[in-house]
Design brief:
It is a single chain. The chain has 421 residues and is an all-alpha fold. Among the domains are: 6-95, Rna Polymerase Sigma Factor, Chain: A, CATH 1.10.1740; 340-421. It is built from 19 helices and no strands. Helix 2 (37-58) packs across helix 3 (64-82) and helix 16 runs antiparallel to helix 17 (367-379). It is globular and about 70 Å long.
């Protein structure tokens, strides 16, 4: 058996890195140019295949993202020629012979942000808007998006397919939104950015503990939305979402241990937290409080502000955290909010009270539900039950850092099996 080719592996890794970082920008530019989602995705897919063939042999090009854009654009034009398309779209695309996409103008000049607003057209149902944009913006797989929505992969695939068909059938234009469009689509855009950040914060796949390219892209785009929203009255939920992201991102340096395990909030070295991001996030939260128009993102940001305000986990104001979760349950009730509130309840009223709450939630496919149950059972001395709950949590997540942390917690239980899951 021949040894693996290091050049081939290097080329494949380079392609994966570029695709992970640039997928959204490249596909958004192609969609703007050709006005066809499927064509853009198919062309980029072909370009990626070619890169996997050529880069290990010829070396990674100086501008790999530009190479993918140029190659994908040529493949799209080839496809249109093969199909003998003679409509206006082909004529306009064919006129661009230097593979340079013209810069858009208007209130949204960033192709990726423009794509989000386009996909958040009110003709699409909200779950479809979010799912389609996650697919196009971050290059997330259908499985990753399904995991974010807690639905089967087949259901999510159908949802995305229907959204694409709706855009084509309704002839939803890929144009820069007018001011009234910005107002109408803002909630959907914020929902997309929130889920993009969540996937970046804690990846749903077994390949990475987190995806900082997605997290940083979500923050960048949220800042851009905030700038745009200044012209429509600066809705406080935009500030709330940005604050939530910044305060979560501030803790990233302490979230993953050197051995790859997840480090939970109470065990993190708080001296590693990013003080500048915390200061900016706290200032946004204070401004939201002054405006007194609470929304879900603002409340979640306020919860993060309470946590990041504590110099030590023992100094956390759990009463305030629980009160904020009560408010969040009023504004946007969900089983996941109830689960997070139960963590605060455990600190205030004890693990037995919290366990009764958790056991009443229908979240058996959700790894944090199993992990929360496991910790409560451990605190109650129910070691065997806790071990089974940790095993269920491990089976419910693909994230390597999360699995490593859960395994370490399980293995520390008296009498629990040792070793990796």
């Amino acid at each position: 058996m021949s040894a693996p080719d290091p050049a081939a592996a290097l080329g494949a890794d380079a392609v994966a890195d570029v695709v992970r970082a640039e997928y959204g920008r490249v596909v958004a530019g192609l969609i703007r140019r050709f006005g066809d989602i499927d064509l853009a995705e198919d062309a980029l897919g072909e370009a990626i295949v070619i890169a996997l063939e050529r880069w290990p042999r010829d070396g990674v090009p100086p501008n790999p993202a530009g190479w993918l854009t140029t190659t994908a654009a040529r493949k799209a034009l080839d496809h249109l020629r093969r199909e003998k398309v003679r409509d206006e779209k082909y004529a306009e695309a064919a006129m661009i012979t230097d593979d340079t996409l013209p810069e858009p103008t208007g209130p949204v000049s960033d192709d990726r942000l423009r794509l989000i607003f386009t996909c958040c057209h009110p003709a699409l149902a909200e779950p479809a808007r979010v799912a389609l944009t996650l697919r196009l913006l971050g290059g997330l797989t259908v499985a990753e998006i399904a995991n974010a929505f807690l639905v089967p992969e087949t259901t999510m695939a159908q949802r995305i397919t229907r959204a694409k068909a709706k855009i084509a059938k309704a002839r939803i234009p890929y144009r820069l939104p007018e001011e009234h469009d910005l107002v109408e689509r803002l909630d959907g855009v914020l929902a997309v950015l929130y889920l993009v950040y969540n996937e970046g914060y804690l990846s749903s796949t077994a390949d990475n503990a987190d995806r900082q390219d997605l997290a940083e892209e979500a923050i960048r785009l949220t800042r851009a939305v905030r700038s745009i929203a200044a012209g429509i009255g600066s809705p406080p939920e935009v500030d709330g979402l940005l604050a939530l992201m910044l305060l979560s991102q501030a803790r990233r340096p302490a979230r993953i241990a050197a051995d790859g395990r997840l480090v939970t909030l109470d065990d993190q070295d708080r001296t590693l937290w990013d003080a500048d991001l915390i200061d900016e996030g706290h200032a946004l939260v204070r401004d939201c409080l002054r405006r007194n128009a609470p929304g879900a993102y603002q409340i979640q940001a306020a919860i993060q502000a309470v946590h990041t305000d504590a110099l030590d986990a023992s100094l956390t104001d759990w009463g305030q955290v629980a009160a904020l979760y009560d408010q969040l349950m009023h504004v946007r009730p969900s089983p996941i909010v109830a689960l997070n509130r139960a963590v605060a309840v455990a600190e205030l009223d004890g693990p037995q009270v919290a366990l009764a709450v958790v056991d009443g939630l229908e979240l058996t496919a959700y790894a944090p539900w199993h992990a929360t149950r496991a910790d409560l059972l451990r605190r109650l001395g129910r070691t065997d039950d806790a071990g089974r709950a940790y095993a269920a949590a491990i089976a419910s997540t693909e994230n390597p850092a999360e699995r490593a942390w859960l395994a370490s917690r399980r293995d520390r239980l008296e009498g629990a099996p040792q070793g990796s899951p």
